[in-house]
Amino acid sequence: MGKRLRVKNLDRCIGCLECVYACSRTNEKLLSNYRSSITVKASGGIERNYVVVVCRGCRSPPCAPACPIPGAIKPRQGGGVIVDREICDASKCNQECIEACPIPGAIHIDVDINKAIVCRQCGACVQYCSTGVLVMEEATGEW
Amino acid sequence: MVGELKVLYPNILEINLSDLSFEIYESENLFDKYMGGIGVGIELLNQHLQTGVDPLSPENVVIFAIGPLNTYFPVASKTCAVFKSPLTGNLGESYAGGRLSTAMRFNNLGVIILKGKSPEPIYFVSYEDGVQFVNAKPLMYMSPNTTGRIIREKIGHPGNRSVVTIGPAGERLIPYACATVDRTRHFGRTGLGAVLGSKNVKGFAIIGDQPISLESNTNYKQYRRVFREIYKKTTETNLMAKYHVLGTAAGILPLNALKSLPTKNFAESYFEEAENISGEYFASELLGKRVACGGCPIGCIHLAILRERWEKGTVADIHSIAVSYDYELIYALGSNLKIGNAKDILKLIEAIEKEGMDAISTGVVLAWLAEAYERNLISPKDTEGELIRFGRVDDFLSIIGKISKATEESELYYTASKGVEALVEKYGGNDFGIRVAKLEPAGYRTGYYAIMGFLVGGRHSHLDNAGYSLDQKVLNKPITFEQGMNSLMNEEEWRNVLNSMVICLFARGVYDMNTTIQALESLKINRTDEELLKIGKEIQRKRLQFKYAEGFSLKEAYQKFPKRFTEMMTAHGYLEKENFDKLLALYSKEAEKRYAIKVD
């Protein structure tokens, strides 16, 4: 079974954004803070902790069955989903995947290409997290 | 849309504040010819600034520039600001981190040029499609951080923005006012805050989230490989370890042990209470968290949590604030003022932060005042009844605001608000007036090269050529004066290259010549060793040319050396005037040869 991404030590985040860039560099061939499946932001001033927003890799992902376009979002073995970029088309739906996901920001629509952007559990970000916030783990939790 | 993003060289945003207009245009071959950062900055300053203008007049020009490596590579996280300095009267140059360089990158801006003066206080916001000017009159005299918070709430876009602000000191044109970037970073040195204040710019924000195609702008495979190598060098070797563990404050104890930690206005070089203000002490007792600039996995920004009980409060009347500390602040507001309590240093940092002043300059001004007071050069009448004594934090806390808010009626504090040079001109005390070429120095009493580095450096900063570092390197490996001065000049030229990229100089060990060339090559910028060195030298020639055209006199700056420089015990023993004379002569001869300009 494949591993999935876990935000294990959020309190250690220093806000360097290397995970954000690693995701877009690896998966999109882009240098971007926007076309990335991970968002890092401050949670009310720099004195407070950072927030890392990313897909939680559910084994029964609510986004997949909510999608009205057949085959656009498929559950991934080991947790999470895979978006088929050939099929996904946000201009032909009401962004039901975002509505179905209880974590705001875990899925977003890139308005330039009209596709859902969501983590595919590749782990590229983990290699560039210098403080051990992000890890890849076997899915053992109930979700 | 991404397919169309073939931008390697970003745009120039030119703002004319006088009529609140702006223009965004292509940089064409500017970055090809001058790399970026200081290379582009000094070129544009020469193009846009008339010689001899008042630095606080609308005619002054501010250039912000990033370079080719920014955001593409780890620790290439700085932005370069170039302007005419109101403090030194010549080259104003300062670097800041935060998220400014990444925000500019994702806004596709390589350069921001500010000209003229806004009729009223404003801040401006650069969006992808243009600039909005916002009335900042209701924000006048707010602290940099309150201003920043308000701007952030107004503009939104968390995570994709950077906000630069000034405080009351900038608005009151104090020539060592700083500009604060994203709450904890600063364009500290040489007075950018006052120049922005003189232009009625209370702050600005850059919002950027445009993706950049790595397929069109890089040799993608090579880029990923070089990125990985640099990342590993940054995080897995000891090249930068000191910065993330204790931060720059790690330097306090070693420099103290070397008899090189400026203490009591540079009169002493060893502080008996150094352990209580060391990086080790701060980390174990006060450090709350570390944070990082955008695109830097190090996280050298050390935030201490200062818990303060209210005056006359109960045990529960307490508040906590986060204060960022660094080596230079601990020297300037600690050992140099004989403050041996870490919490007291944090209180001073916070007080200065609220006014928006450069902490190094402010600390050295406070030290001069304390010494002048001790020597009765200034009287209680001058101080308006305030006591100004070394080692007394409350004395200093009560005059920081007086300096920031001083009007001409309050002669001493008004003069102090102009810097140590102004104090010496008015009250005397040159012997202990610690400044080099009008700039209050960073905290190193290491030997000849630290002092000479301040003097001959393009912006008179310790970071120009790292004389303090050379002093330490040659402790057990003596070199000739000629070798020493050559080494300083080579270092400054190489730093011009790094400051064109624009990397954080803390990563200078990571970005050696070969690594820099490979990083550039992966971005399809092919440069040889010789070409880079030539660029560094050419930038140095232009920086010096700018200074001398603006009336800088090396001889005059040298003649004003405080006597203390030759009375100082340092890591290299006492320094002698004859040796300074020799070093200066060697420098002048070599500089004229290298840069083909008259250096005197």
Descriptive notes:
The complex is a heterodimer of chains A (143) and B (600). Chain A has 143 residues and is of the alpha+beta class. Chain A has three helices and nine strands, in the order E-H-E-E-E-H-E-E-H-E-E-E. In chain A, strand 3 and strand 4 form a beta hairpin. Chain A is globular and about 40 Å long. Chain B has 25 helices and 18 strands. The longest helix of chain B has 21 residues, at 481-501. Classes of the chains: A alpha+beta (143), B alpha+beta (600). The interface between A and B is large, with 30 and 45 residues. Strand 2 of chain A pairs antiparallel with strand 13 of chain B.
Quaternary state reads: heterodimer
Q: What is the count of distinct domains of chain B?
A: 3
Task: Describe the largest sheet of chain A.
Answer: 2 strands, antiparallel
What sequence of helices (H) and strands (E) makes up the elements of chain A? EHEEEHEEHEEE
Mean pLDDT of chain A: 93
> Gyration radius of chain B, to the nearest Å?
23 Å
Roughly how much helix do the residues of chain B carry, as a percent range?
A: 40-55%
- The CATH architecture term of the largest domain in chain B is 4-Layer Sandwich
Number of strands of chain B: 18
- Largest interface (C-beta under 8 Å): A-B, 30 and 45 residues
In helices, the fraction of residues of chain A equals 10-25%
Low-confidence stretches of chain A: none
Distance, first to last CA of chain B: 55 Å
- Count of helical regions of chain A: 3
CATH superfamily of the largest domain in chain B: Aldehyde ferredoxin oxidoreductase, N-terminal domain
Could you say how many structural domains of chain A there are in total?
Answer: 1
CATH topology of the largest domain in chain B: Aldehyde Ferredoxin Oxidoreductase,  A, domain 1
Query: Approximately how much beta-strand content do the residues of chain A carry?
Result: 15-25%
The CATH class of chain A is Alpha Beta
